[in-house]
């Protein structure tokens, strides 16, 4: 598959593959964490949530969802989180991030039920049943999200290069004669020079297609369908940057993403933030990718 969406998905999956000890230092950031509990968060409909037909959950739907959750045998606790309480928590957590605060309004925040279950519960079944209830936008298992984050050993910033037949917009225009071609030697030289000037850079390394594909196969060995659908030629070459935790990651990531020969750049701290917005606050327009624009 040569679509832009597939290329983006592959690059994101590659970014989340284990990278031989280059663990993102964002994992130590106390401001970007996943709550340490075993709750399943059931977010109710908002007008922007997929499948909600541009409507909020009604009072009756909210009562029905609560009744359903309380009748599930494995459920030990159900608590309601109002839109106002969730928005206040969001404002406190992201108080220093003006762009994030400006992008989310109080009315965007869904109401939710936070559900605790017994240790023997079939969490996947409970989440699936909740997702099918009228008035539910999405149900998210916090334990599952924590496991995904814990298994992620991405570099702090990943810079993916253009490959042959790429459909990524950045590879198709603005590069002169190199449009639609793999990153040229001249483009790579400029990218390396820019990387070496990044403030807060600890180290970086180059990863070729073969190494990327090997890491990908090892990391997703249990995902046979994904591996079968992905070829070596889908793998982009990349530069993997390790950054100081206190450094500004966003600005250099965005600058590198705009350089000729770069298909996309990925910021681990941005991904963790997006995970938090999606999993803890149920914001429907946020799907974690970590891509810099």
UniProtKB/TrEMBL annotation:
Keyword tags: Signal
TM spans (from-to): none
One Pfam family named in its UniProt record: FtsX_ECD
Superkingdom of this protein's organism: Bacteria
Coiled-coil regions listed: none
Signal peptide segment: 1-28
Protein name as it appears in the record: FtsX extracellular domain-containing protein
Record-annotated FtsX extracellular domain positions: 39-135, 157-263
């Amino acid at each position: 598959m040569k679509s832009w969406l597939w290329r983006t998905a592959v690059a994101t999956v590659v970014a989340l593959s284990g990278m031989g000890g280059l663990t993102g230092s964002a994992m130590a950031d106390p401001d970007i964490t996943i709550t340490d509990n075993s709750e399943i968060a059931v977010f109710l409909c908002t007008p922007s949530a997929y499948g909600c037909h541009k409507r909020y959950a009604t009072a009756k739907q909210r009562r029905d969802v609560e009744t359903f959750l309380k009748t599930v045998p494995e459920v030990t606790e159900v608590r309601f989180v109002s839109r106002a309480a969730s928005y206040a928590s969001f404002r406190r957590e992201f108080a220093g991030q003006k762009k994030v605060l400006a992008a989310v309004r109080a009315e965007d925040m869904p109401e939710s039920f936070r559900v605790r279950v017994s240790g023997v519960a079939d969490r996947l079944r409970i989440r699936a049943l909740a997702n099918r209830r009228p008035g539910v936008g999405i149900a998210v298992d916090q334990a599952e999200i924590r496991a995904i984050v814990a298994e992620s050993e991405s570099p702090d910033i990943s810079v993916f290069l253009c490959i042959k037949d790429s459909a990524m917009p950045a590879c198709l225009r603005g590069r002169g004669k190199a449009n639609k071609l793999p990153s040229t030697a001249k483009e790579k030289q400029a990218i390396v020079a820019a990387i070496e000037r990044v403030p807060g850079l600890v180290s970086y390394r180059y990863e070729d297609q073969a190494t990327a594909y090997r890491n990908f196969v090892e990391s997703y060995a249990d995902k046979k369908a994904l591996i079968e659908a992905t070829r070596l030629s889908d793998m982009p070459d990349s530069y993997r940057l390790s950054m100081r935790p206190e450094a500004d990651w966003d600005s250099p990531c965005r600058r590198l993403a705009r350089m000729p020969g770069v298909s996309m750049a990925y910021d681990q701290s941005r991904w963790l933030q997006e995970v938090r917005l999606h999993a803890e606050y149920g914001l429907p327009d946020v799907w974690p990718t970590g891509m810099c624009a």
